[in-house]
Amino acid sequence: MIYLDHASTTPLLPEVISVVNDVLTESWGNPSSSHANGRKAKAVVETARKTFATDFGVTPGEIFFTSGATESIFLGLQSAILDGCDFIITAATEHKAVLDSVDFLAQKHQIKKLVLAVNNKGQISMTELENAIKAHPGKTLVALMYVNNETGLIHPVKSIGQIVGKYDGLFFCDAVQAALFQDITPRDLGIHYLSLSAHKFNGPKGVGLLFVARETGKHSLWKGGSQERKMRPGTENVYGIAGMAKAWRSNFDSRMEKRNLMADLKSIAIKALNSIPGLEINAEDGAPHILHFSFPSAKKAEQLLMALDIEGVMLSAGSACQSGSHQVSHVIEAMNKPGNQIHLRMSFGFGNTKDQVLSACQTLVRLVS
Ligand code: PLP
Question: Which of 147, 157, 176 has most ligand 1 atoms within 8 Å of its beta carbon, as the pocket-test mutant?
Answer without folding.
Answer: 176
